[in-house]
Predict the structure of Glutamate dehydrogenase.
Amino acid sequence: MKKEKTKKQSMHATVMSQFNKTADRMDLNVNIRKILSISNSEIIVHFPVKMDDGSVEVFTGYRVQHNNALGPYKGGLRYHDTVDIDAARALAMWMTWKTSLAGLPFGGAKGGIEIDPRKYSIGELERITRRFTYALGENIGPEHDIPAPDINTNAQTMAWIADTYMSTIPTSERSHNRHIVTGKPLGVGGLEGRDRATGYGVFLSAKLYLENKGERLEDKTFIVQGFGNVGYWASHFLVKEGARLLAVQDAHATLYKKEGIDVEGLAVHSNPRKGSIADYPDAVTIPPEDFFGLECDIIIPAALGNQITAVVAEKIKAPLILEGANGPTDKEGEDILLRNNATIIPDIFCNSGGVISSYFEWLQNRNGELWDLEESMGKLQKKLTENFKRIQREVEEKNIDWRTAAYMLAISRIETAYQQRGIFP
Ligand SMILES: NC(=O)C1=CN([C@@H]2O[C@H](COP(=O)(O)OP(=O)(O)OC[C@H]3O[C@@H](n4cnc5c(N)ncnc54)[C@H](OP(=O)(O)O)[C@@H]3O)[C@@H](O)[C@H]2O)C=CC1
Ligand SMILES: O=C(O)CCC(=O)C(=O)O
């Protein structure tokens, strides 16, 4: 339950160690390695916003565009007090690998505002979002860089961004630029199913992995760190398939119930804005440091990065880790887990349901279509299943871990794109 900043660990160091490990193994073209080691552009904006009491606060926002060899930049916006240039850089790089691995025509970007949104009213958050959008200006665009939700941002945030962006372009162009952001509310061009897509992908990762081993989700036990969009929806689908949620941790509390926590009851209890699972009456509160060491079959980190460090990894007994969050496992943590024969389904596949669904929303808006839930979830399931099987083949054929396999597939696709452009044969 510690925050990234207080741990003083660099998320960029984590993603670079993963990249370098893969680049060495696949003997990546030296020039392409140089390009991919650094962001294409890093935008930092400082912008003033009037508060409810009439005072003015100046905020700092980031948008890092890592790479666009495969298409427009794509990735979420996070509102959190741990957002800084290191985090944005790392998260943008993860997006490049994720979109490539998923086979999407997108590159990678990420950004956000260094802010604790709980300290602000809804009206203030709206003004902050609108001023941030205005400050980003032409650095975002529906064919250039397309934001989406991440920690503490949601469909409402995306609607404010879209509305502000529209006010800056000619009226005749507004109706066909709704794909400026994805993850919007349905009424303004959002896609049925985008809300649950990331959690669904986490669930499907578990299902496909276990099926391949001849096992089922029924009666498997799991624990979840983070009970926001990803943590809730992953739990929802897992419990529906018969798995049991033993423990949940957020920034405020750690809950445990041996018989299984009622996911829907907990969701009703926890108000996303106040953001707390604390004081939920139908589970006991346990010390946060006991969480990762609980006896269970599956652990789902679905909150911040660098949570599974060496100290935490030593405690872990679960054989399967599903990375719902981006970058939840640092290098030392990963080394220990692999040495202990745990399987880590890496973030760049495990949470890719969100960006795949965002791609569907982008297509829907671009083509003037309206997809229903069945179509959207059906296509998501098909794409995730194909991608899972490709990684699984790579794991089995090369006898490597899942992250290295996923990285090799992701980076090879970008390497081919550069080579086919004739720049770095
Ligand atoms: N939304 C999406 O589509 C995608 C999200 N992701 C990744 O999934 C993760 C979660 O995102 P999302 O669910 O959207 O975010 P939300 O804002 O919806 O939820 C975040 C959750 O994490 C919890 N949390 C925050 N800090 C801590 C902490 N120090 N210890 C334990 N829990 C904490 C929050 O608790 P509290 O409310 O108490 O602060 C909350 O329950 C992130 O890493 C994000 O990048 C990846 C792909 C797509
Ligand atoms: O939906 C998207 O475009 C990106 C979501 C995201 O930020 C992520 O996958 O980490």
